[in-house]
Design a protein that fits this description.
It is a single chain. The chain folds into two domains: about 25-90, Orthogonal Bundle (Arc Repressor Mutant, subunit A), CATH 1.10.10; about 95-265, GntR ligand-binding domain-like (Four Helix Bundle (Hemerythrin (Met), subunit A), Up-down Bundle), CATH 1.20.120.530. It is built from ten helices and three strands. By secondary structure, the chain is mostly helical.
């Protein structure tokens, strides 16, 4: 089945439909994506359930347009699948799928950052430093708010995209794109725990400290350190996801998640 391309309202977003998740989005569209992502993660939208823009818009207290635009983007992330007739259904996945995909992302991004270290350009380092400043602007107030979700997710996705682009490896880019079709495996797929924003701050603060360490390793030409940091950094993605709430989390995947959290240390 051919993939449906979203029809976008230029008043809401300036997204180029041929680009992949590296685009400016309106506040409403960002909020719709993050909120729907959270609902799927928490099981409020069950695997196999059909999703329709009208009831979702009512539930999220927003217009139908950003919800309609969010659905195909969530399908790109692997959270939804196109229904055989029309619309979308929630895709079934397990904690094991997510853990494996995040671990694989760490390996692949570690390879990418090692390639970059061989010749990190001044332009790349300047843009990465801009990402660090944007993240610091969010976290320097020593707390996170619900409105910070989209801002941090955009910065994080941009940071990782810059490194992958500089690596100039079509094979790595294609493999990471395929891996990102597993829900929550991509750097743009951040889910906040609205019930514990203090803990979310600690997790994001630690992850952003890793961003600083990765950039410093690139600046100093420390290729092995940069690769190791990027691999460890992938574990931080697990920190923002309550994997124990997902199907299959009661067995091995939950144990692996617990170990990943313990090994990542504190802030």
């Amino acid at each position: 089945m051919a993939t449906r391309r979203p029809s976008l309202d230029p008043n809401l977003t300036a997204w180029d439909p041929d680009a992949q998740h590296g685009f400016p989005m309106s506040t409403q569209l960002t909020q719709a994506i993050v909120r729907l992502r959270e609902m799927i993660l928490r099981g409020e939208l069950a695997p196999g359930q059909r999703v329709a823009e009208a009831p979702l818009a009512d539930l999220l207290s927003m217009s139908r347009t950003p919800v309609r635009q969010a659905l195909p983007l969530l399908a790109q992330e692997g959270l939804l699948s196109e229904h055989e007739t029309r619309g979308y259904v929630v895709r079934a996945f397990t904690a094991a799928d997510i853990v494996d995909a995040i671990d694989l992302r760490g390996v692949l991004e570690g390879m990418a950052v090692r390639r970059v270290e061989r010749g990190a350009s001044k332009g790349l380092l300047r843009e990465l430093r801009a990402c660090l400043e944007d993240g610091a602007a969010i976290l320097d107030k020593r707390r996170v708010e619900e409105s910070d979700e989209g801002r941090y997710a955009e910065m994080n996705e941009r940071f990782h995209r810059l490194i992958l682009s500089e690596a100039a490896s079509p094979l790595l880019a294609e493999t990471l794109a395929r891996n990102s079709r597993i829900p929550f495996a991509g750097p743009q797929a951040l889910a906040f725990d609205r019930g514990n924003l203090d803990q979310m701050y600690d997790m994001l603060h630690f992850a952003h400290r890793q961003h600083y360490a990765i950039v410093e390793a690139l600046e100093r030409g420390q290729s092995a350190r940069a690769e190791a940091l990027m691999r460890e950094h992938a574990n931080s993605a697990k920190e923002s996801i309550n994997l124990t709430a997902l199907p299959g989390a009661a067995g091995e995947p939950a144990g692996r998640f617990a170990m990943a959290r313990a090994s990542s240390g504190g802030v």
